[in-house]
Request: fold
Amino acid sequence: MSEKDKENKGNENEEEEEEEVEEEEEEVEEENEEEKNQTKNIEEPKVEKKPEEEKKIIPKETKVQEVKVEKEEEKPKKNDNEQEEEVEEEVEEEVEEGEEKEDEEEPDEQANSKPKPLPQKTKDGLEISLELIKKFKEVSPDESDDAICDFISQKGLPMSVKDEETLVLILYFHKLCVPFYKILNSLDKKDIVKIFLSSLKESYYLFADSQCKHFNYKSIAKKTFPNLKTSQEKSLISMELCLTPLNDSLPPSPSVFKINKKILELGLESQGKLDVYSKIHILKALIYFINLDKLIPYTKDFQQMENDLIKLYKNSQKEKMNEEKYNEYVNIFTNGEKRDEWNKIIVGCKKAISIFQNINDLDSVKIYEKLFVQLLGHLDREVRNEAVKILNIIYDQTTWQEKGPFPLENTKIQLLGDELNLELTIDINSYSEKSVVLVVCSPVSNKDIHCSMTTFIKSKSEQQNDNQITLNFNLGKFKKCGYYDWYLVRFSKGRFSNVKIIKNKNKIDGKGRYIVLNKDAKNLSAHEVFPDLIDAEIDKNQGRIIRRGNFKSLENKLDEFHNRFINCLYVMGALERDNNIAYDEETGKAIDIANTDASPMAITNRGSISSMLGGEADFKSLVQKAKTLNIKIIIDSLCRISSSRANRKYRNVLLRYLDSHSKLQLCYGSDGKSVQYEDSTILNYRKIEAWEMLIKEVKDIIDKFDIDGLHLDNCQIWPHIMELNTYEMYRIDNDGKPAYTPMEILNGEIVTPNSESGYWETDNCDTYANPLLVKLTREIWNLHPEFIFLGECWIEEKYSQRHVSLVKSGIIPRMYTLPIIICQMLGKKIQRNGNMESVPPENVSIIKEWFQENYENLPEGAILVQSSSGQVWPYPALLYGRGNWSAIDLLFSLPDVPMTFMNEIDGEAYRVQITNVYTSKDVKSGEDNSNNNQGNRLKSRSKSLMRLIESKEQEQREKEREGNNKGMTRTNSKLALNDYIPQLDLSESISTIINLSGVSMNNARDIDSKQNNLVQSLKKDDGFDLNKIKYRYDQRRELRANHKSLRFGDLVYLNAYDNKNNVHPGIFAFARQTPEETGIFAINFREQETNFLLDMSNLLGENGDSNSICYIEDWTNRSQGEYYFLRELTQSHVTRKIGPYATVCFGFKKVDFSQENYKKVMERSNSRLIADLKSKDNNLVDNYQVSLQLKEILEKRLPIEEFSKWLDYVLELFEKYNISFNNYIRKLEFLKNNEKSTTEFFRYCFILKNIKSPDRKYFKVIQTAENIFNSNILGPICFVTPELGRWSTVGGLGVMVDELSQGLNAIGQEIIMISPYYNQNRKGKTDYLANDPFNIHYTKNVSIQLDNKYEFGVHYGTGNNGIKYYFLHNASIFPRPYPDLGPADIVREMACFGKASLQLLCDLGVIPSLIITNDWFTGFTPAYARNGAFGDAFKGTTFMHICHNLEPSYEGRLYPSPQMGTLEGIYQFNADWVIDPYWKVKILNPSRCAILLSDQWSTVSNSYKQDLQNNSPLAGILNQKPQPFAYPNGIFKEKRLKALLEKAGGDRNECKKYIQQKYFGYQNADFSVPIYSFVGRLTQQKGVLLILDAVEEMVRRTNGKINILVGGMGSPSDPYVAQCINKINYLRSKYSYAFWANPYEFFTDGPKINLGSDFGLMPSLFEPGGIVQHEFFIAGTPVIAFKTGGLKDTVFEFRCDNNTGNGFTFESHNAYELIQAMTRSLNLFKMKDKYEICRQNAKNSAIDVADVSRAWCREFYRLKNKIFFNVKEAKEIGDQPLELKKEDEDNDETTEQTNISLATLNREPEKKIVDDGLIPMTFTYKFEKGKQPKSVLLCGSFSKWTEKYPLTFDPLSDKWSITIKLEKGKHLYKYIVNDEWIINPLEQSTKGNDGIINNVVEI
Reply:
């Protein structure tokens, strides 16, 4: 019955009722006005209602009377605690238990007693018996309605129950479980029914599980109300139900249980959404009927819910949707003048849809759906946005996405059979016990029920933590594909409200969605086939296909596909095709034929199977056989149909456009961008008919053929809605009337071709699901719950994130981006049309970037399909060449589902195009290429070619629109609009495709020759045989099928390093990891063979602990594997060799732990360790189990007993194999590079060596610990320096040496300082050592002999930190630092200082381990140690020379006159040490002497080191030293921060104010003006003149809003300084407000300048290290510096894009570059947020002296071949003699892994090693690349050539090995490889007297 008929039939009665209800409801509505927006709309689909039901509304009288009953029967309330205890009782028994009891009791009931019928209450009464209930359980849902009603009419419903039972009937509130709604409809208004509540569980007012099974009706009463009294139970037996239409009131009666029939009907029909409301209504009545006092307090909430339900029903009658209202909306939405009304209408529509969904008014909802499908193509973007949202609401059947989409964090993809366990964390304030529930809208688990259901679910468990509580919901397993939406709500005061959940410390909406897909979705191994080409026959003479394949030929191939591990076939072209009207170009006549070359995508009927390929029967046979082989069959689905001869059903939904001649034409299929498919036409998806037609066709295909899935072609544009042609659609005819109706406009009948609008042109397409796809998937999954949807998704810039939308819409996207990425790594660039060009190969890191980008915004668990190629691109063999072998391995090892393409899996490189494309004349040559074959004169169209039309073809179409093209030629066909054949010049594109992508049909004769040429070019002898590549496909597919980790495992990125320890640019390494198994891959995408180091350290994770054992095996060769400890494997650093385009592939599984397994694996580990220690190669030993055990002891700081046991075990092991423990320790990288671990190791040693009265069993351990500790003490370090600290510092040298010595001393090193005691220091002060805090005093003299005898006073003092300071005094030799003397005097000064320093050490009896000399003044010191002046005293001393500044003017060069000669008589050692004989000019250079004779040299920054090595005049001798050391200078950060606080106040703004007021004359601070400051000496080195030259320009650029300060003094006698002074005077006089400097005063405000400046200036011409930048950095001030020396290593340009950098730099030393850098800094200063980040970066950049000292100390230890550790910490931590605990019971070992300690596992208890005199010997066989043997045996003279020992293959190192014990002597042996006796050419061999050659080993 139509809506209009319904309304007319009951119009009069409805008007009277509505007036009455509106008048009586006024008061209730006013009370609820404030809460109306909070009303919970728990919505779902509905059931069609009869006209009589729809007329009725809920009148006021009954509700008012019920309220009166509440007041009359209200009893005294109990206290809150009592209520809580009683109301919140849990159900203690399960329903199933009750059912079992019922089954047990039934026989006794039948035998012993006959049920007594209850008295009939009225003559018209209706009594329902247990017999009816049993009938409910027997009848299936499909037949339940009719069967139950027939049962009722036949039986008359006699009542039969026991008197003592409390339950008579369960009323089940869902039409799909019990058809009670039909019973209700058949009752008169006073019929009586025995009733009890059906699903009242856990809570008295929330009802969960409206889709649950029938419960046991005998136990439900006891479970629900366990505390009911006997009298109340009796009253239940006599209870009556009066079903009353509420316009007929009845007086309340104790014997009448009155409920509202309409409320029951609403609950029954709402599919769960109104369960709560309906049941509350019944419970409320029940409360008063049986006097349940404890529930009376809840009746206020119950009344609120009743009011809401009444209002809902009333509004549904008011807001009824009909055609008249729909047409009104159409008129408004097409009228731009009424746009102000659009939003108001949309808001009203949302409200109405919610109402109609709740009451299940499907007719109204359907009209709204139609409207908003049209509005999806509306001109206004906001309207389209709302259309997307509302259509999702309609299809979801809830309003949960009205205020926003489901959060991405709460959207997950799951598989059928997965468990749905939901943990939600909420704020404790949002929680009150029993009030928070989860509402779930999901498919019904019953496979026979095809709809969704809303249920209410209570939390299974709760965990409270701080202010949060975690709720756990276990919803069982997913049983159907579909959308499982959830919403967390709280019930309060009769209303539901959303509860926020907490994720990653953020509060988000408590709602989410699970999209459940086919359980095999991740197991798919897919292959695309085109039946036409399977076993097709080609006439190679004519070059044409003369016989096509078909469904039968494909069916015959299924067994082969199955054997090749293909379990999913995408059968492209299976639908009925376009049998084109073709034409003969010679005659111009149309030829009506069945065109066998029809495009597979020119579909005439999407609901039919291609008759060309064998029709329905053959296709059914194909599908049936595929199912027996577990192969899924997937076919096409398209959003377009053939542009000619399409089925008549599409005529009303075709889409049209106006061509350049204003003629209506069909819109060709298009991608909405540039590609046009002119063999097909688009349907009008603004019409709901197009949507429903698509879905019906899909349903028909599935029902008829039982296919497994669909492949949605070009799914990234579904639904393809084109832009409206507004110029045409809003055209006014010449009679002044619109040319088109509003309906035609909203339907978008005429559009702009090849454009895009609709869903994809909305803001919501990124967050909301695609409405068409949601509708499609929901409707199909309702009927076929395991169906698969694949969606083709071409990702280009415009479509970059469309696969995200597809995933959210239930589609598995089929991607085409992997070939693009592979091509880039192979140095190729592929375009969408198949064209390729050569480019530089990309780094393999792009795979990681590509993969992360693909999954960046995808829901958790998303599944993608990756294609090996496409219908437009060449086969991979042609696309990648030799790289195809790598491409195959990558395709099948990534997490995405692989899909291969046609004949690529058989090694074919060239393919016949899907359809033939040719013309009778070559457009370029004009020659006639026609022949007598009629087919060659037929023009057909190809999908593959249409995809090629990009930029050039797009321009051509634009010209066509402008009238520059004749458009399309009409044939003689009688068809109306379907007979246009496009004319398009594709000759250039055709040529391109033939050359690159394949071979067209008329060139098929060339396939074999082209294929053979390619096979030869790939060099099959090198292992790249294209004829055998099919086996590679099959092996990798089998590998994926056999290893779950390749289908379900996480992708873990690994690093492959080259020989320079850089990440290898051509090897992509990764793992696929599950808890049970891990697969590891390293794929080489380069042409060259290479070595690499595989880092697997991040694989351990949660997969195992320190003792976990795994079995590793090669997955490709299937050879015998090897056992490893898991952490051994994951932390191994084995260098491997990999061939060009090859793959290393192995995997491991965890092995059950046991003592026996542990022992076996430990032996194998030790064997490998011993082999590496004996090897001459510098193999790492960190990652063997014993090494890892030590690492664990150190990291966890286990008790000393554990360390001693470990040491005892290792010592015994090494003694057995004659291995040096010291050598082993020095090979441990983690001891070399980790100070904390190293210090812990020596702490243990220090403790052991100090143990008193040790047990004899520990003697060897203690002795070894003592030796190790003592041998790694570095010994005294002596600094010989010309300037030092506060006493004699002139520049940075004295500061650096002073601070470095203190830092070294702080970590326990013994430091000696030797420096001159000048007659005057830098400040001109004499006796500056007097009264020194370190009590420096004269002790004795030291004498030396040079050209004369010289004597020096020795002044000694000890610092607070223990550093020993020695100062040598001789006023005539050391008058002042760096005196201006003649060459002879300076030579004498240097010689005296150098020799006297060594003499002092000898006199003291201290021979340092290292002597550190500093700059040229100390250059002679190593000469006296080398020339024999002190004999062998310093033979063991290492000399290091620090080049603080090695610029030519700082080398200390001296130019003695010819009369002076070499001055050798003064210094008395070889003159060549100081004078380079090859220099043209005789120069005496002390720096040469120092560098030449020292063991090593170093400097103060890495960049400066490189500058010296490349540019220094001394580069020749500098480069003679291997591994020179460099490290930047630092500062005492703590001291500097203290100085900033004490001297600068610690407040930056106050300092800035101070600077502006003192130096620039400001009255008040102006923080918007930046301050640029320089602090330092005015010298040419510091580049001060650059600053002065930049001042004027910077003042101009800032309009004077700048402050530039130069703080420092200089000597006016210096010409450079004089020039600076002149410039300073000028600038100060002109720009006193912006510039300040005073070269005559010592600058004392350094700390305040550091803190108050906005930028520091350091334009130094050269700066070996630099301290000033760190003084700025520690204050948080960025620095502007010239890129030189140490500044280059410490100052970095700030980048706003990634917030890195701590200042600004310039590379050319001129004022312009400085100005540009300062200008960039000004721009940053204006961006306050970025500037603050830069300041923080600067502060973090300051280097602490402690870090500097550790770096230098580590280098000192390296020079001495010792292991660096913090001596001070090692002694402080362990400076207490201890006793080792005795082990009383060594035998009590357990086999449980968790209880086995580290030490007890190391060795067998009470089993001493017997020295049998045999020596273990490891034999190793390495095979050639590509010749992996299947077995390797060893046989030799040691077994008299009788016994063969099998070697074990280690996939990790690619070696076969075995360790056997041999006697001392010579042994002959051979290897037996694959049953062939051979010698190993890599091992020593010998030839016997008999001429036989054997390998030989001598022990």
